[in-house]
Amino acid sequence: MTQRAFPILFITATRIGDAVLSSGLIRMLADQIPNARFTIVSGPLAAPLFAHVPGLDRVIVMEKGKGKGHWFKLWRQVRHKKWSLIVDLRGSATALFLRREKRAIWKKLPGEVVHKVVDAARTLKLEGDPPAPHLYITPEVQALADELLGEGGPILAMGPASNWVGKVWPIERFTQTAAQLLGKDGPMAGGRLLILGGPEDTRMVEELRMASARGRTIDLTGKVDLLTAYACLRRARLFIGNDSGLMHIAAAAGAPTIGLFGPSDERRYAPWGDKAVAVRGPRSFDQFLAIDPDLTQAIRHMSDLPVATVVKAAKALLTRTEPSAEVSPEEAAVVETIADEAVGAEEAPPSTDAVEPVVEITEEVSPQEEVVQEALAEERVPERDPS
Fold first, then answer.
1. What percent of the chain has pLDDT over 90?
2. Domain that holds residue 225
3. Is the same domain home to 254 and 155?
4. DSSP letters along 178-192, please?
């Protein structure tokens, strides 16, 4: 007998990094509820991360509107269904005005600073080890990544960009670090350099690309989407990058990851996993706050992080994560892809309202809806990040 579908409304973050860090909750729910059907709400930058989630009905892209208008617009799109579970990692009041059996709403808790992965898990009242970040891809996505990377030596991946100049390590130091690691006396001698970033980062990575060994550089900056970048990073022997969404994608992909930190707090945003480390210069996060309280100034805060510190950390991480001779990074990526595909094949059959398109709703607002709209607009439950 076919099980009744278990519809889940999962409201995740606007930013790519936060969306990745909470993605393990989706995997946990998919694994534990075979008949789960997901409607995932995300900002426009992070939305593509969820294209291949098992049991996906719909991804709703929520863009910020005037005031709290984007929340009212979301409510109008999802109010016609009774949800088995609503998970709201943004801490909004939306779930209070929807029909549901259970709800889990993020709340800011007093006390010590905790990592975002732990913070997200607490929303579902999970104790012990929290679900690690995880992204789903198809064999086709992995095949495209393998075609782009080709064959050759071990891959040093770099993400030299970030969403704010204050978090960007100088590009010439990425170049010097790559030269020391990939040079003839380096621990990755004969390896290849993979450069990743968005379309807006093309000019800034030019120095790194031009200084790298000809024929051993794969520059995919602005050329691949997030999930293809994730698939490429599954084959990386090492990733080095600024605190950014790409850094979290690398760690989720299982690549040994070094995150470069300055004016951001590694207690909350360090790359997650036993093969990931955060590296910073001589100044603490609190020292950066003292000179830039709002963390908005156009100051190159990362200039005091020496190349030697990063190279030392890279060598230590390479030694600690030396792969077994029996399983190559390429083979490991294939094994995980096959496992993810098996999960997708075993999911519950689509419900009668599966795969709904995102539509613009233009009907007139009723008096009852005006009450909800006003309540959402006045709601002061803090959101996880700006939207």
1. 73
2. 139-322
3. yes
4. HHHHHSTTSTTTT-E
